[in-house]
Design brief:
alpha+beta, Flavocytochrome B2, Chain A, domain 1, three-stranded antiparallel β-sheet, 5 strands, rod-shaped
Length: 105
Amino acid sequence: MTPEELKHYDGRAGRKAYVAVSGKIYDLTDSPLWVAGDHQGEHQAGCDLTEELKSAPHVRAVIERFSVVGELNQPPEPARGSGSGKVWIVGAVLAALALIIMLTI
């Protein structure tokens, strides 16, 4: 399931309440602490809560008690430092130097 698809499982209007944590998607629909997809006014279902769980007052084992219903498929991140920008800059500098040399000859 993609993050966009996960958003539809927000626990509102009779929909299931799913959250993602570390790539796994958990079904919190039947939890009395997740009424209408809301967890005590702090968190909303339909989201990736991996970062929020790091500062939660309970241990991760609490979320792991719920059924896993799938995996969160994150879109691949663009490659960093691929060098294409650097190559363009080096090429532009070399072209400028060639032009300067030609004009001074």
